[in-house]
Write a structure and sequence with these properties.
Shape: globular
Low-confidence stretches: none
Structural class: alpha/beta
Number of helices: 7
Order of helices and strands: EHEHHEHEHHEH
Strand order of the largest sheet: 2-3-1-4-5
Radius of gyration: 16 Å
Helix content: 40-55%
CATH class: Alpha Beta
Mean pLDDT: 92
Number of domains: 1
Distance between the termini: 24 Å
Number of strands: 5
Strand content: 15-25%
Length: 178
Amino acid sequence: MRVGTEDTRLVVLRGNSASGKSSVAAGMRERFGRGLALVGQDNLRRIVLRERDRPGAANIGLIDLTARYALDAGYHVVVEGILYADHYGEMLARLRADHRGPTRGYYLDVPFEETLARHATKPIANEVGEPELRDWYRERDLLPGGVETVIGADSAVYETIERIMRDTGLDALPALEH
């Protein structure tokens, strides 16, 4: 089932916890303005459904449906989250194949030591510790087929935002009137 239009942009932003995904997505929204939908795994899985991350979980379909709905409504979409390749890969591949417009994937690659340092600055640092982060961490959990651009920890948030905006053409598009 085809989704979106030739003009809608789909960006999939993946990486380990504390790799900067949410900051980059929020920065893209701020830079673009109205018309850019953020489909956050954490929001849909943890807040809306209050569900554990496991293969076949309900949030996988909800992420897919939410992204498709927003694309069909004419929004550009950023899907962001850890989105483990073995749990979410098939859904993301179908979404990519079905999207009529340009689709770009990015993997924010941050070493575990940097993940720990960044996590220490987060509000949930007292609730989630090193054992959980170590359990969640997967080194270079890339999707098959070379569909993602890897961005290293040396890229500052603003540099990553600008790169993705430029790569996707979002920097040249007007904000929408949604």
